[in-house]
Design brief:
The chain has about 160 residues and is mostly helical. It has a domain of about 110 residues. Helices cover about 70% and strands about 0% of the residues. It has 5 helices and 2 strands; from the N terminus they run αααββαα. It has a two-stranded antiparallel ribbon with strand order 1-2. β1 and β2 form a beta hairpin. The longest helix has about 55 residues. It is rod-shaped. The two termini are about 50 Å apart. The mean pLDDT is about 90.
Length: about 160
């Protein structure tokens, strides 16, 4: 039966077998890649949603800044400053496993250029007094967090990979 098989036939058989193995390898590796991408996309989506919730909380804090020029209740001002500090700590904790995102979030070198005029109330005002610096830091942190959410691939990496 195999006596009439020529060496050229064996060579063609080997090439066909190798081609088949290569096709199977490509199919399997493509399926693995798609599964990993799907898992990563799901993880990124989940992380982006949690960061968006923190961003919304920070924006609500920014909108509730107190005009120290007209208030006599310094406890409410101190409570607002404490709430801002708590939000920063909470957001840092959320980003603690993401070194690039944490570095980007904590970069606050440009606080002096932040405009402290707010018009979230009926009448706009400049934020002054003890809430001015926390307001500036909050504005920078919100901007940084928005950048992380807008480009999650650049800042976030799945720690389970």
């Amino acid at each position: 039966m195999f006596n009439e098989v020529k060496p050229f036939d064996w060579l063609m058989f080997a090439i066909a077998a190798l081609t088949l193995l290569l096709l199977v390898y490509q199919i399997v590796s493509d399926q693995r890649r798609r599964k990993l991408e799907s898992q990563t996309h799901g993880w990124l989506e989940e992380k982006t949603v949690s960061l968006s919730m923190l961003l919304d909380k920070g924006r609500r804090l920014q909108k509730t800044v107190i005009d120290e020029a007209i208030t006599t209740d310094h406890r409410s001002v101190n409570a607002w400053v404490e709430a801002v500090n708590d939000w920063i700590i909470q957001t840092r904790a959320s980003l603690s496993e993401q070194p690039r995102a944490l570095d980007a979030f904590t970069a606050t070198a440009d606080t002096k250029n932040v405009v402290t005029f707010t018009n979230f109330t009926e009448r706009g005002f400049y934020v002054t007094g003890i809430s001015e610096m926390p307001y500036r830091k909050l504005a920078i942190h919100l901007e940084n967090l928005q950048r992380i959410i807008d480009i999650p691939d650049a800042y976030l990496s799945n720690p389970t990979r």
